[in-house]
Hints:
Helix content is 38%, strand content 21%. It has helices at residues 4-16, 50-58, 66-69, 74-84, 109-115, 142-155, 161-166, 205-212, 219-222, 225-228, 233-240, 351-371, 379-385, 392-398, 403-406, 412-418, 446-504, and strands at 23-30, 37-43, 85-96, 99-108, 124-130, 135-138, 175-183, 193-194, 203-204, 249-252, 255-256, 266-274, 285-292, 302-307, 310-316, 329-334, 435-436. The strands form three sheets. The chain has a nine-stranded mixed sheet. The protein has a six-stranded mixed sheet with strand order 15-14-16-13-12-17, with helices on one face. Helix 1 (4-16) packs antiparallel against helix 4 (74-84) and helix 2 crosses helix 4 (74-84). It binds 2-acetamido-2-deoxy-beta-D-glucopyranose. Residues 1-22 form the signal peptide. It is found in: Nucleus. Its main location: nucleus.
Amino acid sequence: xxxxxxxxxxxxxxxxxxxxxxxxxxxxxxxxxxxxxxxxxxxxxxxxxxxxxxxxxxxxxxxxxxxxxxxxxxxxxxxxxxxxxxxxxxxxxxxxxxxxxxxxxxxxxxxxxxxxxxxxxxxxxxxxxxxxxxxxxxxxxxxxxxxxxxxxxxxxxxxxxxxxxxxxxxxxxxxxxxxxxxxxxxxxxxxxxxxxxxxxxxxxxxxxxxxxxxxxxxxxxxxxxxxxxxxxxxxxxxxxxxxxxxxxxxxxxxxxxxxxxxxxxxxxxxxxxxxxxxxxxxxxxxxxxxxxxxxxxxxxxxxxxxxxxxxxxxxxxxxxxxxxxxxxxxxxxxxxxxxxxxxxxxxxxxxxxxxxxxxxxxxxxxxxxxxxxxxxxxxxxxxxxxxxxxxxxxxxxxxxxxxxxxxxxxxxxxxxxxxxxxxxxxxxxxxxxxxxxxxxxxxxxxxxxxxxxxxxxxxxxxxxxxxxxxxxxxxxxxxxxxxxxxxxxxxxxxxxxxxxxxxxx
Length: 505
Ligand SMILES: *[C@@H]1O[C@H](CO)[C@@H](O)[C@H](O)[C@H]1NC(C)=O
């Protein structure tokens, strides 16, 4: 499980990111009131008008109409902000049909606790820019405005209206800014989010201490991304999205987060076809599976399961290995056919999901059994750890496939003869057994195949270029020594010539 605060930061960012945003920025700022750390999350998306803002901030309080109240920002705002800190203030600038509005809202647990009101009050003020006077007009009536402003100045980190309005200055034409302050402390009396250990990161306090006590021998393992994502927000964000639009950036503490592809950490990679066992038309998909490059020196395994490009299960351990079977095996897949839970930290435990789990389990073992020797495990590791197969009836209910029959590698060269051209086009995969499939999955997505083929071609080209580079390098060395030789010869001849000149005189 990821450190909970991270998933909340991400949920909050996710809630914030709106159509058209080019970035979401997560940072620490000092609370102007007392200098304590506060969490800032900001985007440059379309922002919210006063109505959208009201819906966002009161979602979950007015449950009777919650269906209607779910706005773009509704889900997750209250839960994630209030779990991170006691108080949150939201600034949003919105532009619609040439009308620019600015809204400020406050969701303050401190305020609600201390005033013990019998209802939930979420103070909000709204402004509209008046183009003829070039100034801000107050919306929703002056009296209402003054009462709300007073509450904002009393309970927010800003003690004057000017200070509040200053928060819009770095916002451009639209965008939203959430500041969570009075962050919760952990049992040791420090904030759960650690801003100090790495000034370019946000960490979870408790894990950082643990790692410094680990012997160097085990560092490879402990410093692996599979471990660090649990306490480093930068690492977590780097694997959180399988694919982000090129124009979009996640900025953490002023520095863009570099996306990281876990697939690049693997060796002996295979793509194994999986067809979800659901009724109706299903999309075939491929599971990328391989050994971590550090194998056999790391004790890490599991699948990274993405849903609509967002990571739901990081390094999900589908097998419990006895001895070593499965050790070092890591997979990546995108599973849009199963539904994530509301908090996006797991999948709903449907039978579809259980079938997927069972298949990933058998896949891990099959992969291990055919590859473990290649990375230096001894054969006895396997025999010793061989797990007995369940009875056939059990196999069926667990979603097992009969391995021999179903998972034979397709010889795509041969397949080409009977498969129609539109599905499989000339491939060079046969001898490498890079694709395995089940009979139910006979049709291989031509685009995927093309991409893999292209990938392989580029890889070969790359190797060739590297080789060529090496050849050229040795040529350079050779030529250098020839130049040197020639230079020596020249010097010698010159010396001889000079001595001849002397004689002539
Ligand atoms: C802008 O301000 C002027 C002067 O106060 C007012 O008459 C006008 O109605 C305002 N315009 C809008 C669009 O509110």
